[in-house]
Amino acid sequence: MSRIALIEDHPRLAQLICKALAQAGLVVDVFPRLDAAWPEVRDGEYQVIVIDRGLPDGDGLDLVRRLRSARNSTPCLMLTARDALHDRIDGLESGADDYLAKPFEMAELVARLRALTRRPSLLGDSGLAYGDMLLAPEQGHMTSGDETITLPPAEMQIMLSLVRASGKTVRRTSLEHAAWGLSEAVTPNALDVALHRLRKKLEAIGSALKIINSRGHGYALKYE
Predict the structure, then answer these.
(1) Does the pLDDT value for residue 18 go beyond 50?
(2) Which of 66, 73, 95, 178 is the most buried (most CB within 10 A)?
(3) Mind listing the domains of the chain with CATH numbers?
(4) Per-residue pLDDT averaged across 114-122, rounded?
């Protein structure tokens, strides 16, 4: 049974979410503050973490950044009343895997959580190398030389698709389906944001690989 961490300070909303998730067969632990949640979520014991952005002791994105810095790749779904494009981009840039604006339907929240809980089972490779880069899906890491960086699940699925293509072009829709599933609704620019982050991360670990855009066709890993 999937175990979800919910970080939400509004008691009534937390109660409604817990009821909906319990009916869907999901076990939920509720934390009203970031400082209460951190000791429980940092070790990766949850399948998904649902985080409200507006919390009494800070922005929920701060917890996502802290998790990613600690190489914790647990999928994170952000709940927020901020629905502007730049807010969604900020969330994805910070390492969040999905973004749901309030008010929302509980059925949509359940569907998105189910999609996120299915992702780890796709990360079954013990390691996959291409050029000077090694992917370690089970650990959520990408390595080149002595440098290692954490990839959240969606980014890992994109890199796995590109690596498995061995330099051939992968269509945009294929990368979106690999990262977010066939049924999950994503923002139109979600893939662009993820690819931007991956390019920066390849540079950060000193890899000579580049993600190349073949306009009208898709993306591929190449040496430049």
Answers:
(1) yes
(2) 73
(3) 3-120 (3.40.50.2300), 123-223 (1.10.10.10)
(4) 64
Token reading at 135: 């992917």
Q: Is 121 helix (H, G, I), strand (E, B) or coil?
A: helix
* Helix (H) or strand (E) segment spanning residue 11: helix 11-23
Cis peptide before 56 (omega within 30 of 0): no
Name the E strands within the chain: 3-7, 27-31, 48-52, 54-55, 58-59, 76-80, 98-101, 128-130, 133-136, 141-144, 147-150, 209-214, 218-223
Task: Report the SS3 class of residue 6.
Answer: strand
Once rounded to an integer, what is the mean pLDDT over residues 124-137?
A: 75
Q: Which residues contact 36 (CB under 8 A, 6 or more apart)?
A: none
DSSP-H helix ranges across 72-152: 85-93, 106-118
Distance CA 119, CA 197 (A): 19
Q: How far apart are the C-alpha atoms of 31 and 51, rounded to whole Å?
A: 9
The whole model's pTM is what? 0.57
Strand pairing category for 98-101 and 76-80: parallel
* Number of Cβ within a 10 Å radius of residue 15: 12
The pLDDT assigned to 224 comes to 67
Q: What is the pLDDT of residues 149-170, one digit of tens each?
A: 999 888 988 998 898 888 889 9
